[in-house]
Structures are given as C-alpha cells and as structure tokens.
Amino acid sequence: MDGRIIQVIYGEGLGKTSAAVGKCIQALSHGKRVIFISFLKGRSFGEYECLKRLEPEMKLFCFEKEEECYASLSPEKQEEEKQNILNGFHFANKVAETGECDLLVLDEVLGLLDLGMISIQDLYKLIEHSGNYDTSLVMTGKYIPKELLQHIDIVSEIRLVKDESEK
Questions:
Q1: What is the overall mean pLDDT for the chain?
Q2: In what order do the strands lie in the sheet with 34-38?
C-alpha cells in the first residue's frame, strides 16, 4: 500500500463501510497512520463500537451529536446536525492539508454531495489537498457523480444481487 491512492466504494448494496474498514486494517498492518471519519450515520452506527477498539492505532471521528442517522431526524434536528457534519468535513480537509495520516477514510461523504451540503468543488479541493502529503483517500456513498471519476484511481461498486430477508 505504497503511494497515494484515491478510492471510492459506492453503491446501493450493504458493505461499503465494511470494505472501507478492510482498507483501514490493511493500512494499519503496514504501519500506516489511519483516520476514519463517519458522516450521516449518527453516533451509534453499527460498526462504531467495534472500530473504537482499534484506537489509538486508528483515530475514529464522528462529529454528529445525535445517535440516529441524519435521514431519521426531524427537519429541525437535521438543521442543527448539518453544522456538526460540516465541521467534520472541514476537519477532513485540515487532515488532508496537513498530512496527519497516511489513509483518510470518509465514510458516506458522497451523501453530503447528494444532500447539497458540499459541492463537487469542495470534494475536488479535499482530493487536491490530500496530494500535499501523499495521503490516500477512501470515500464511500450510494452514488458517485460522473465528473468525479476522472479524479479517482479505484472505483468499486457494491450492489445487492439477492436479499433473502425481504420475503
């Protein structure tokens, strides 16, 4: 895992976060510094407690104050939470600018684009900043804008083929 790689893991299927966590474990096993920032999932997303066990080797951040995911919140709570989420994105930019880690994972950051919280230009700047210190990026979300593809080295799609639970 040498050299800077920009990767997106996207799709409607389950497992995007798990795939990103796999990248974290791979980086940690090579002695890399890893920062994982979660967006839109609230403070109690499924993998959070397990990921906390990887600290201090991996730094884990969630800037949201609410336990529930953003989509489940009332419009008033969403408005309050939006600033916390944006603070998390600004922190991610600072991490990318200063080279605080070798791998920066931005879980569900593409959802911020979908919701209009950030622009594609904001994401371009973050990608550009990560190049200052050869920080690799892994970004996840349901959708990837076509114009972003030219800035990404690896794109992986997670899609649902079968779901027995919906019988």
A1: 93
A2: 58-62, 34-38, 103-107, 136-141, 6-10, 154-157
